[in-house]
Amino acid sequence: MRGQTDVSDSDLLQSMLAGDEDALAELYRRRQAGIYRFALQMSGSPSLAEDVTQEVFIALLRNGKSYDSTRGPLAWFLLGIARNLMRQRLGREQFYAPLGDDQSEGPANKLQSPANPLDDLSRSETIEAIRAAVLSLPPRYREVVVLCELQELSYAQAAGVLNCAIGTVRSRLHRARALLIEKMGPAKEEDATADRVKTARCFA
Amino acid sequence: MTCERFQVIAGEVARNEIMDADERNKALAHTTACERCEQALASQNQLSKNLRSLAQEMKATEAPHHLEEKVLAAFREARVRSASRSRRPYWVAAAAAVLLLAIGLPAWLLYVSFVSQPTEQAGAQKAIKISGERSPDAVVSPTRPPDSATGLTARRIHPRRRQMTEVAKLRLKRSTPEPSPSTKTPEAREIATDFMPVGYGSALDLQEGGQLVRVELPRSALSRFGLPMNIDRADERITADVLIGADGLARAIRFIQPIESTTGIQPEK
Predict the structure, then answer these.
(1) Please, are residues B155 and B123 in contact by the beta-carbon 8 Å criterion?
(2) DSSP character at residue B231
(3) pTM, rounded to two decimals
(4) Which residues face B197 on adjacent strands?
(5) B11, B58, B76: residue with CB nearest A174
(6) ipTM confidence
(7) What is d(CA B141, CA A40) in angstroms, rounded to the nearest whole number?
(8) Does A19 touch chain B (CB under 8 A)?
(9) CA diameter of chain B
(10) Which value, in Å, is the radius of gyration of the alpha carbons in chain A?
C-alpha cells in the first residue's frame, strides 16, 4: 500500500468516498484532534465531544460529495460540520446556560475572587477559570473565541468555517474578549467607579 | 487617538494582529497618557496570555483511541449497506417478475376460460338470424336439434382457427376414401367447398365469435359465387353453411353436398 502521509485531504476524501478504508483512517488521524478539541472547548463535555467527532466523520461519509475544494480546505469543512452539530446539541441539551453581560451568577463568576484572581491563582487554576469563562459565553461568541484564540485560526479562516463575513468574526471576537475580561476581571463595582474617574480624566 | 478608538483596537493590539503600523504606534502612545486605556491593554494582554495557556494545555488533546475504531466500523457498515442497496434492484426485479408470473398466468388462464365459456353457451342458445345479405330464397332450419345425426349444428367458429381462402382458389374438397358405414362420421358423408366471403365483410374480423347456420338455397345461387351450375337442375335446392357474425350479418358461405348425391356441385363439364 502506498504511503498516504503526503496525499492531500481532498484526495483522501475522494479515495474514501470510493470505498478506501485506509484513506478514511488517514483522514481521521489527521483531523480528529482539531475536531475533538473544538467540540470539547465548545461543550466542556468529553462525551459530547466524542459523539460530535464521530458524527462529523459519519456525516463526511454521507455527504462528502458536497465538499467543494474551491471554498476552502477540508479542515474548515469538517469544523463547519462540527460547529453545526454542536449548535444543534447545545440548543437541544442546554449543556451550559449562557450568561448575560451583567449576570451576577454563573460558573464563571463563581470562580472570581474579590481581588484580581489572575494574580493569585496558580496556572492550573487560571486555566480552569478561563476555560469556565469561555464555556459561559453565548455560543456565537464562544465559537469565535475557540476558533480564533484556541484553535488559532485567522479571521478569514474562522469566517470560512462559520460561513460569515470577516467583519462579523472581528466584531464578535471583540465583544467576546470584552465579556471574558469582564468575567475574569475585578469586581464590577470597583471597576465602575474607576471607569468614571478614568473616563473623566481621559476626556479632560 | 481617542479612548473609544483605542477600545476598539485594544484586542487586536494585544493579539498582535496585522494592522497599520502607524495606528499601532498611536495606540501604544495613547496608553502612556491614559491610565484607563493602559489598564485595558493590560487586561487584553492578560486575557491573550490565559487563552494561549489554555490552547497550549489542550494542544495535545485528542479523541479517545476507541473512537477511530467506531468511525471505521461505521464506514464498513455504510459500505455494506450501500452494496446491499445497489444489489436490491436486481432482487426486486426478479421478485417482481416471479410474482407477476405467479399471479398473472393463472389469472390469464382463468380469463381465457371465462371468456370462451359464456360465448359457447350463448351461441347454443342464441336465436339463429340470417342477415339481409343472404339470398331471399334461403330457408332456415332452426328447429334442427344441435346433436342431430348430421352434426351440422350451429357452432362457434373461432376466427383464428378457421382461415378463409380466396374465392379464386375455390375447389371442391372431397373427403378421404369413403369409410365403412359403421365408422362414418357426419362430416365424412359430405362434400364441402371452402368458405367464400359474403358481402363486404370479412370472416377474419369475427373477434366476437360467430355462428354456423345450415340453410337451403336454390341451386342457381352457385352462379352468384362463380361456381358452375347445371342449368337443367336450376330449380333444385342445395345445402349450404352460412357463417354469421355476432352482429347478425352473413360473413361467409360454403356449399354442402351429401356424398350419396355425386352430381351436386361438382364442376360440370
Answers:
(1) yes
(2) G
(3) 0.53
(4) B252
(5) B11
(6) 0.73
(7) 104
(8) yes
(9) 152
(10) 20
